Amino acid sequence: MAPNSYRRHRFPPPIIRHAVWLYLRFTLSYRDVEDLLAERGVEVSYETVRRWVLKFGSAFAEGLRRRRPRPGSRWHLDEMVVRIGGEQMYLWRAVDHEGEVLDIVVQRGRDKRAALKLMRNLLENQGFAPTVIVTDKLRSYAAAFAALDLAACYEQGLRRNNRAEVSHQPVRRRERKMQRFKSAGSAQRFLSAHAAVDNTFNHQRHLISRRTLRLFRLTRPRAIDEPINAATGALTCQRRADQLAIDDAKPREMVIDAFRIFRQGGFFAKSQRPRSWKIDAQFLYHLAWQRRHDEDAVRKSDGLFDAVRDEEDGGPVVHP
Predict the structure, then answer these.
(1) Is the pLDDT score of 138 beyond 70?
(2) Residues pairing with 94 in the sheet
(3) Does the residue 119 lie in any domain?
């Protein structure tokens, strides 16, 4: 985003970013965002929020996509019917084996040409070919794969593609809240931004501990999640770090170092996250202490990260 993109705006950038994040993260209307900001003392109209989303939403989503790790090599493809402007259209979607949205394309057809467009966008944007592709029994997929000469294993089945089917639910909720999409272009812009935000802030809390979730919220990307200033009543990241340092009886510098290690380690990258054990915050604090007292601890901690990721499912929690 250009540095002067906030010029001639009445409100400071943190408030604009927070308003855009609220609209893209939660199932809210523009008037709902207006009410939430008014509750914090920010008087802004819903039309202004709409213009902010149109201007900054795509740039925020692009920044979030650049920060995402490489997705899995097992892709699930599916399409759903949507009514846009009184016309029946199709929303083509691709997700990986853990539900992260890879791409969304709004098209008029449900044929080989539409499937080819989706696959070409995927291969161009992701930069690698999948090893396994799972779809429903639509024949357009097989024709598109044959035209692209893909070497991936192709699977079809009644329930094998449930991962893609479930990923349609957030779109259906937003479609009902927005009283259907008004045009194909606006639907494409909104769904692309919505997918990037959902990939970043959908924590899957059932897989992590509460303490680790607090650390993760403090280190999430700042392209959208910038705190509102003190006049709005929101706590800043620094104040939350101070509070966590008090709760855990740790020096503030150690807490900040633990945040930095947590971000660099990428524990919760969806392509790398384990499913059978939970990371303990004390492990991060120990690595932070090592990095402050041992110059060789950087290489040691990096080796620990690799060892943790190589643990088999069902392995014990890793403690220093």
Answers:
(1) yes
(2) 77, 103
(3) yes
First CA to last CA distance, the chain:
41
Same domain? For 55 and 152 the reply is no
- When pLDDT is cut at 50, 70 and 90, the band that residue 218 belongs to is low
Instruction: Give the strand pairing for 153-156 and 132-135.
Output: parallel
Cβ–Cβ < 8 Å for 32, 232: no
Are residue 233 and residue 272 in the same domain, yes or no? yes
Domain assignment present for residue 2? The answer is no
> Which of 67, 89, 105 is the last residue before a domain boundary?
67
What was the pLDDT predicted at 283?
59
Is pLDDT above 60 for 135?
yes
Residues 121 and 212 in one domain: no
What are the pLDDT digits (tens) for 257-266?
Answer: 665 555 544 4
Q: Quick one: 126 and 44 in the same domain?
A: no
pLDDT digit string, tens, across residues 275-318:
332 444 555 566 566 666 654 444 444 444 444 444 434 443 33
Q: Are 168 and 71 in contact (CB under 8 A)?
A: no
**Angle formed at CA 277 by CA 274 and CA 280, multiple of 5 degrees:** 105
Cα 34 from chain centre:
24
| Cα dist from 247 to 39, 146, 220, 244, 286, whole Å | 29, 58, 21, 5, 17
Give the pLDDT confidence of 37-81 residue by residue, as tens digits.
998 888 999 999 999 999 999 888 888 888 888 888 999 999 999
Q: Fill in the amino acid letter for 250.
A: K
CB 155 within 8 A of CB 132: yes
Q: What's the number of CA atoms in the CB half-sphere (13 Å) around residue 289?
A: 9
Q: Range of 236's domain?
A: 205-309
Number of domains in the chain: 3
Q: Which helix (H) or strand (E) holds 90?
A: strand 87-96
